[in-house]
Amino acid sequence: MARVLVVDDDTTFCIMLRTWLEKRKFQVDSAFSHAGAMAALQAGAYDVVLTDLRLPDADGIDLLRRVKERAPKTRVILMTGYADIQTAVTAIKLGAFDYVSKPVIPDEILKLLHEALKPDPGASREAAGDRETPAATYLKGVSERADKLHEHIRLVAPTMMTVLISGESGTGKEYIARRVHALSRRAAGPFVAVDCGAVPKDLAGSEFFGHVKGSFTGAISDKEGYFLLASGGTIFLDEIGNLPYDVQVQLLRVLEERVARPIGGNKDVPVDVRVISATNENLKEAVDHGRFREDLFHRLNEFSLTALPLRERAEDIPLFAHHFLDRSTAELGKEVTGFDPAVLDIFQRYRWPGNLREMRNVIKRATLLCPGKFIAREQLPPELW
């Protein structure tokens, strides 16, 4: 009988979920705070810890770290509101098994528990498609431009230089960032990806650099920002051009002095991270128009990489097409083995405005619709042909 610890300050919810899971043959304990969870973990071992991200005396991120220190094999599933989704995704990169959005659906919790209790739960989560994070495996391509990009990645990865990755949406900028991290001396440390456009402007300082309890309304406990979560590893700032101007000032100080001050704090905290950023806009133009600090631009752009649009790497199109087909068949449980020649010809002629992301979605849809072994033109969206 699997042991589950449910941690949430909503006692009614805890009791309801505990009763529901016990009827399904789980052994369930409840805790209503971070301190209560730690006491329960000290008293016994659990297979899964199911915790709210926001607790009255600390947060779920700290509890995640404590669980992983005490019992690395224990799976941690986070429950989170919509506003904390980015933090939950970050938590997965720090070792959480998965997250579920509130209001939770008991059947969804049950499904996640069964996956977490499998001998190799990572395999099932890897195929989860819609919430996937870029895999550590980097598909280089075979074109001359792909070779040059890969060589630049290999050269800059072992250094501590900041890297600015530019390129159109969907070209795989986060994959490139992860490849740089994987080849760096910090590969054993965390890789924390942050979508700068998704961080609320009024909370950006807290999200990036943390805050102390009571520093503003709603700050019910101390919070570590993304930069401290990435300590010893790499922080990836996606869509860096969306960063609020005042946060740009703070980021420049962090890069120059390697310290950060949490909101409401009275002392600096050392920062040990390698910074990789990405943008799909022309940051030089943003500098010219006063939307982005010139000094920060130069500090972020010690080395630049350009993610290649798919239409400019025609030799790589069949390689990526078969890669996405393999992933789609594994995820959807289909037995599609290839493409009709006409389909590959369409792929070569199409402009792919959405780049790799668009190709992945097109092939996933076609795989689902395909009745046989080979994807035909009829399974493609009409705009392609």
Overview of the molecule:
By secondary structure, the chain is an alpha/beta fold. It contains 16 helices and 14 strands. The chain has helices at 11-22, 34-43, 60-70, 85-93, 106-116, 121-126, 144-156, 173-182, 204-209, 226-229, 245-257, 283-288, 294-300, 317-332, 341-349, 355-369, and strands at 3-7, 27-31, 48-52, 75-80, 98-101, 163-166, 191-195, 234-238, 259-260, 269-270, 274-279, 303-306, 338-339, 374-375. The strands form four sheets. A five-stranded parallel sheet has the order 2-1-3-4-5, with helices on both faces. A five-stranded parallel sheet has the order 7-8-11-6-12. α1 (11-22) links the parallel β1 and β2. α2 (34-43) runs parallel beside α3 and α14 (317-332) packs across α16. The longest helix has 16 residues, at 317-332. The radius of gyration is 23 Å and the shape is globular. The model is unreliable at 121-137 (pLDDT under 50).
Structure characteristics:
alpha/beta; 385 residues; five-stranded parallel sheet
